[in-house]
Amino acid sequence: MSDATAARLDHDDPLAKHRDLFVGAESSLVYFDGNSLGRPLRVTGERLARFVDGEWGGRLIRGWDERWFDLPLAVGDELARIVLGAGPGQTTVGDSTTVLLYKAMRAALAARPDRSEIVLDRDNFPTDRYLAQGVAEECGVRLRWIEVDTAGGVTAEQLAEAVGPDTALVLLSHVAYRSAWLADMGELTRIAHDAGALVLWDLSHSVGSVPIQLDACEVDLAVGCSYKYLNGGPGSPAFVYVAARHLERFTQPVQGWMGAADPFLMGPDYAPAEGIRRFLSGTPPIVGMLAMQDMLALLDEVGMAAVREKSVALTEYAVQVAGEVLAPAGVGLASPRDPDLRGGHVTLNHPLMREATAALWQRDVIPDYRDPHGLRLGLSPLSTSYDEVRRGVEAVREVLDGLPG
Ligand SMILES: *Cc1c(COP(=O)(O)O)cnc(C)c1O
Question: Catalysed reaction(s) (predicted)?
Answer without folding.
Answer: L-kynurenine + H2O = anthranilate + L-alanine + H(+); 3-hydroxy-L-kynurenine + H2O = 3-hydroxyanthranilate + L-alanine + H(+)
